[in-house]
Amino acid sequence: MRLLFVHSDHLEFETTTEAGAGLAETEDVPMEGRMEDCVTAFVSVEREDETDLDAVVENAADELRDVTGQLNTRKVVLYPYAHLSDDLASPDSAKTVLRDLQSELDADYDVLRAPFGWYKSFEVSCKGHPLSELSRHVTPDRTDGDAGSETADRAPS
Amino acid sequence: MRLLFVHSDHLEFETTTEAGAGLAETEDVPMEGRMEDCVTAFVSVEREDETDLDAVVENAADELRDVTGQLNTRKVVLYPYAHLSDDLASPDSAKTVLRDLQSELDADYDVLRAPFGWYKSFEVSCKGHPLSELSRHVTPDRTDGDAGSETADRAPS
Ligand SMILES: [Mg+2]
């Protein structure tokens, strides 16, 4: 899984058209939404994640807890985003991971999840401080500690 | 090179702090800017591009001409973005490519280039139609035609 975290003053989105027949989520997820002062997590679920979807959900939740802890926020947007990887998981796997990640976080976070399988208009802002954009590569590795993720903090360029 | 094109109602940015000593561009590039109704091109220059920087500039310009032709706009934001690749070029190579790409386009495009090597706040919108987000992998391949690029149009997920 590829994650791009953007510390945002706001994120808003609205679905426009379905991306493919039978692909688009329509239940239990809003067709539009807005959140203020949040971490926007752009998410690409990858083929390698399909070896253990539960593990990648757990490792992704760990990363989100780390990042939101550093940024001192409990507000998260989960935004499916195909453009962070060349090797995507199947749509069914991606939807499972996104739903399960939301469930994992719902108890102690305010979560806005954008629906999978839709073209969407959106607007996002980035606060611009040195930790306001972070990328992570999360794997299904179940080893303890940070083995299930690879930090990729980079100069912003 | 990894390119992510976002057809935008607007993009605006403002530099905040330098990312590293001696890394940040400070000349011939604005410290803040805004463009309306444009293609925002997020750009990661990669190590493989260093085999032939001129070729990758030419191939990237071809891609931009293709995409802006489809979207019927002559307004382009070049936005350096480290988070699209795991294997980045050196900062010097990246700066050369971004400057040369701007020069290549300046004759017939309205180009806003964001400076390399700065943390920046930004706000970007995406129009949300099916062609409003496109990713491309551009290489230094000099073969004629489209051999220097790999189309990666994806469902938006
Ligand atoms: Mg071409």
From TrEMBL, chains A, B:
<comment type="subunit">
    <text>Homodimer.</text>
</comment>
<comment type="similarity">
    <text>Belongs to the class-II aminoacyl-tRNA synthetase family.</text>
</comment>
<protein>
    <recommendedName>
        <fullName>Threonine--tRNA ligase</fullName>
    </recommendedName>
</protein>
<feature type="compositionally biased region" description="Basic and acidic residues">
    <location>
        <begin position="134"/>
        <end position="157"/>
    </location>
</feature>
<feature type="region of interest" description="Disordered">
    <location>
        <begin position="133"/>
        <end position="157"/>
    </location>
</feature>
